[in-house]
Input
Amino acid sequence: MARTKKSVDKEQLRQRRNELYEGITAGEVTLQQAVREMRALARMTQEEFAAHRGVSTKVIKEIEGGKGNPTVQTLNRIGEFFGLQVAFVRTATLREEKDAVKLPAEHGAESP
Output
C-alpha cells in the first residue's frame, strides 16, 4: 500500500529551511541535526533520502544516529540538494578566544 504524503505549507517549509541555514551559519547545528532536518524538509524516509542523494541507507542512519563517519564526498552529496558543501568554519571557542584577547587591548589595557 502506497503511503501518501500530507499536504504541507510551503511557507512553513521555507521558514524551516531558512532556520536551518541560519543555524548552520551560526555553528549551532550538528551534522546529525542538519541531515535529519534536511531529510525532514525533503519529506523523505531515510531510505528515500539515501537513494535520492546516492548514498546507502546505512550512511544516513549512522549520521542521524550520531555514529557515522562519512567522507567529505558523501557529505557533499547529501548537502548538495540544499546548496551546502563541506567547509572549514571557525568554532565558537576560537571566536571567543580571539575576542577575549582583543578586549583588553580595545579598552586601553595591555594584552597578556
Q: What stands out?
A: The chain is about 60% helix and 0% strand. Residues 10-87 form a domain with the 434 Repressor (Amino-terminal Domain) fold (CATH 1.10.260.40). The radius of gyration is 19 Å.
